[in-house]
Every structure is written in C-alpha cells, then in structure tokens.
Amino acid sequence: MVTNPIVRALVIVLATAGGAGYAPIAPGTVGSLVALPLVPLVARLRSDGWLPALAFVALVAAVAVWTAGRAEAIFGAADHGRIVIDEVAGIAVAALFVPATWLAAALVFVAFRILDATKPFPAGAIDRHVHGGLGVVGDDLVAGVYAGCLARVLLEVL
User: Fold this and answer.
1) What DSSP state is assigned to residue 39?
2) Residue 126 CA, distance from chain mean position
C-alpha cells in the first residue's frame, strides 16, 4: 500500500495518464489518445539509433509496471479501469515499428485498440494469469508489438 501522500498522488497522476483514466466512457481509449504524441517522438528517437528508442520505451514500460501495481492497491481492484498507463506503454511499444508520421500514429491507435480488446495470444494469457503491475501492463505490451507490426505492414501496402 502507498502511504506517502506525495507518492500516492504521483501514482494516481501517472496511472490515470494525467486524468484520462477518469473519462466516464472508454477510459482506455482516452488513455491511448493521450499517448499518441509518443508515436512520432519514439520514431524520431529511433532515427537516432535503436538504443535511445529502446531505452525510452523500456523506461516507459518500467514506470507503467511500477505505477500500475501500486495503483491497483490505491483503487482497490486488479486492473482497475482508471489505470490507463498500460495503454501508454502499449502505444510506446507500437511506435518502435512505424515512422514519425501522424498517419502512422492513427494506424497504431486503431490497431492497438482492436488488439488490446481482443487480446491475441499471449496477451490474453498474460491478462488472465499474471498479477500485479506486470499483469496490468504485459498484455498491452504484447498488443503494442502486434499493433506496431500491423501498422507497419498497412503503411507499406498503402
């Protein structure tokens, strides 16, 4: 349990992606929209070399896992709907596969929302069997890989 009020506030702000998790309808979709500017940012980092982009995405994922685990305790439920930092991490992962364009970001968004909802293997298994922060975020990381690959293929075809 998070007892320090400053850490508690930080966890809530991060877990809800600055409040997006409080959206009354489709908070995961709103959280994904908040994350869209990460697509061109990560893609530009990747143009400087894979290491900066991978380091940034790994940092986002690590913060997401830590935050989501603590937010579950604060909100009193496993994978509470207000926790949307997992969508932010998933979008960041997807951004590793696409160019720094808003068309790529839009394709990532649509593909990610579909794949996050359908949870193709192994995302569904992670969602069902892994607990804590890694369970909250893990399925979104998988959906992010799939969404990034799908968006990349669609961009090549278009």
Assistant:
1) H
2) 15
CA–CA distance, 111 with 146 (Å, rounded to integer): 8
Reduced to 3 states (helix: H, G, I; strand: E, B; else coil), residue 81 is: coil
Beta carbons within 10 angstroms of residue 103's beta carbon: 13
Pull the structure tokens for residue 48. 């400087």
pLDDT for 158 equals 82
Question: Do the Cβ atoms of 39 and 56 come closer than 8 Å?
Answer: no
pLDDT in tens, 116-155: 999 999 999 999 999 999 999 999 999 999 999 999 999 9
Indicate the DSSP class of residue 97. G
Output the CA–CA distances (angstroms, integers) from residue 23 to 9, 16, 52, 158, in the order listed: 18, 9, 32, 33
Where exactly are the structural domains of the chain? 5-157
Query: What is the reported pLDDT for 142?
Result: 98
Q: What are phi and psi of 81, to 5 degrees?
A: -60, -25
C-alpha dist (Å) from residue 76 to 53, 71, 113: 34, 8, 25
Query: Is 156 within 8 Å of 148 (Cβ atoms)?
Result: no
Note the pLDDT tens digit of each residue in 29-66: 999 999 999 999 999 999 888 999 999 999 999 999 99
Q: How far apart are CA 101 and CA 126, in angstroms?
A: 31
CB 70 within 8 A of CB 120: no
